[in-house]
Amino acid sequence: MRDAYIEELDSIFDDLAGICRRVEISVSLATEALMTGNAAIAERVISEDIEIDNARERVEETAFNLLLLQQPVAGDLRTVVAALRMVSELERMGDLSVHVAKVARLRVPDVAVPDEIRPTIAQMAAVAEDMVSRVSSVIVGRDVEAAIALGKDDEEMDGLRRQSFAELLSDDWTHGVEAAVDVALLGRYYERIADHAVSIANRIVFVVTGHKPRAVGE
Amino acid sequence: MRDAYIEELDSIFDDLAGICRRVEISVSLATEALMTGNAAIAERVISEDIEIDNARERVEETAFNLLLLQQPVAGDLRTVVAALRMVSELERMGDLSVHVAKVARLRVPDVAVPDEIRPTIAQMAAVAEDMVSRVSSVIVGRDVEAAIALGKDDEEMDGLRRQSFAELLSDDWTHGVEAAVDVALLGRYYERIADHAVSIANRIVFVVTGHKPRAVGE
């Protein structure tokens, strides 16, 4: 009985890591759609989000049944509760990549991001993707050091967000209101993906050590 | 023992309703700061958010201890798990009102919202505040009908968001990029507050009836 229980707890973490890898693909494809104005890729991100939603429901059911049938105590209970929160955040990250894909789709056959600001947005996307990718490893390996290191990338994201605002509010901006609004919202979506990555990493620290690394930025 | 347990479960809902009323005040004050350019009110929203964060932690502790010590089954377990999610969403709604207050503060002594678009933004704020206010009643009364009705307000919010985009992308928009970006982000913040209100209402429906009213919009 006890063995089956440990196995079930581990399988929740495998499922979380699997969802995280799906989110990584979703963020990556949404960025590709955004940067190339490719409607088919944008549609794929939007339509495949249901798989992340379904995977979330399965994790919730497993966690709920574990609480119901095994009545875990102390550390195990903390782990299950944390898993429920992490899966919500992963689903939300999927939704945010759908928002990016929808901005891309709205501007097809044009590209939403004007040339001058492409490097900044591409860098935000790269930081977000990298953080999601590293969260998968943090979940699989319950890696506290890697989790704490993730917080530093979040500072890079904040810097990029400020830079994007400086660019679109400068006198050199010639692309008008629509492109500026797109860029501001895209920045918000990538920033929120990064926030959730940090929050999940912090929850892993809490699960492993029993201590919160710092105020969780959610 | 059993009585103390029921009492504790009820007290979690009282706490959630109390946090919801704090969020309501926070949204209302943030809107006032935004519409008047009042820095002191914006600062108050920003500094008092810690009280919502602390109240969240207390609810999480109570719920965790309840899971640990009482090992609730079936409906009660569903209730405690739902409470953990609802308190996360309420904290997030508090954060979003802080974002509104920060936009207000950034533009002091000016007002971030240009005159022509004030009616639309004021209406978004009013819809969001009303939804938060009604969520408090839904939580207190476990009121399924009122919870389902909340979903309809969300459609009004979507319509207002589309309207705000139409206004700031029209040829009549003379306020430049900065004001447009402010308005687009403010719209996003109010929309997310509304989304969370609907999501909490849906969780109450699930707690009371055991069925999800529809896909939870989060």
TrEMBL record, chains A, B:
Q: Where would one find the signal peptide in this protein?
A: none
Q: Where is the PhoU domain?
A: 20-103, 121-204
Write out the GO biological process terms.
intracellular phosphate ion homeostasis; negative regulation of phosphate metabolic process; phosphate ion transport
Alphabetically ordered keywords of this record: Cytoplasm, Phosphate transport, Transport
Pfam families tied to this protein: PhoU (PF01895)
> Taking the first listed entry, what is the main subcellular location of this protein, grouped into a coarse class?
cytoplasm
| Gene Ontology CC terms, in alphabetical order | cytoplasm
Where is the protein localized? Cytoplasm
**According to its UniProt entry, what is the function of this protein?**
Plays a role in the regulation of phosphate uptake.
> Which protein family is it in?
Belongs to the PhoU family.
Tell me which NCBIfam families the record gives.
Answer: phoU_full (TIGR02135)
The UniProt subunit note reads as follows:
Homodimer.
PANTHER family in UniProt: PHOSPHATE-SPECIFIC TRANSPORT SYSTEM ACCESSORY PROTEIN PHOU
Protein name in UniProt: Phosphate-specific transport system accessory protein PhoU
Q: Which species is this UniProt entry from?
A: Nocardioides humilatus
The top of its lineage is: Bacteria, Bacillati, Actinomycetota, Actinomycetes, Propionibacteriales
